[in-house]
Amino acid sequence: MKKKIFVTRRLLKENEEKLKELFEVTLNKDDKIYKPQEIIDGSKNFDGILSSVSDPISADTISKLSSSIKIIANGAVGFGNIDIKAAKEKGITVTNTPDVLTDATADIQILLLLGASRKAYEGRLAAETQNWKWSWDFLLGKQMSNKKLGILGMGRIGRAVAKRAKAFNMEIHYHNRSKLSPELEDGAIYHKDLKSLFKQSEFLSINCPATPETTKLVNKETLSYLEENTVVGNAARGDIVDDDAMIEALKSGKVFAYGLDVYNGEPKIHPEYLKLKNIFLLPHLGSATKRTRWDMAFRATKNLEDFFSGNKPQDQVN
Ligand code: DGY
Asked: Which of 9, 51, 53 to mutate to test the pocket of ligand 1 (most atoms within 8 A of CB)?
């Protein structure tokens, strides 16, 4: 008998077809974002859930899930939306989808840093209102080439950002829980503490996962370690940044410009960000290419398949 999978969001056609071949599935045709209670009710007596980054699955939600649910396959590399400890306690396996979105997300991170530093938002505004003329001092940005790039979180995506930044002749610095092997470091300079990294960074790329330890890691105090006029990019998670402190830093000039793709309480965006010009905003597009979205959902499907064949899924995180 096929296992029953509750799929929380609409997937690309090919992915839904593959799931239907393997499992008995309930799909979300209208792509409505379910409230926790709708996930609990909808997945009653199912064997597993295929979730997305937009589904907050808290300890409370997990405690109310049907005892038949044995796995939550999250279709994202990040799994901060799921309380993995509560899931483990209830005997629910959680998986993510690493690797397949590394390139797409690193590409977007470069776009964020460039968009912010070269005033792409203001440029677009001036162009679309036909309110501009070329002049020597028109919308002068900060050049990314030949600068020092600090990478907060040198995992797969951080390293892929470093690789791209080298094409801009940037000097790469990073902070991680531990120093990487020389092979993975690939010439990047390790900073044991965040203060030392922030002091060196002319550009700062936020790439660490969202965990209880990284919540608001970029805050009033840590932002004060930056030199004036630093450019910051965040393609990781909104929770890592204290928005009020960042807005203050953007207003004071401590941060020259901020490029971000991810938000606290998505899809809401802090209204102050929308009033600022030294900002470059995208609506969580990090993994948004067809190839990447296919691969993410196929990988989540493979995790379900492995799990129900009695094997440990390759991307188990708890
Ligand atoms: C992820 O995989 O964590 C991305 O943010 C989803 O787009």
From this structure: 53
Local confidence band at 201 (pLDDT 50, 70, 90 cut-offs): very high
The CATH architecture of the domain made up of 4-98+290-308 is 3-Layer(aba) Sandwich (3.40)
User: What confidence score (pLDDT) does residue 252 get?
Assistant: 98
Where are the chain's structural domains? 4-98+290-308, 102-281
Give CA–CA dist 61/239, Å, rounded.
Answer: 20
From 8, 11, 77, 296, the mutation candidate for ligand 1 (largest count of ligand atoms within 8 A of CB) is 77
Fold agreement between 4-98+290-308 and 102-281: yes
Q: Is 301 in the pocket of ligand 1 (CB under 6 A)?
A: no
Fold of 102-281: Rossmann fold (3.40.50)
Q: Where are the alpha helices (DSSP H) in the chain?
A: 13-22, 36-42, 59-64, 84-89, 102-117, 120-128, 156-166, 182-185, 194-200, 220-223, 243-252, 271-275, 290-308
Share of the chain above pLDDT 70, in %: 100
Task: Average the pLDDT over 57-73 and give the result.
Answer: 98
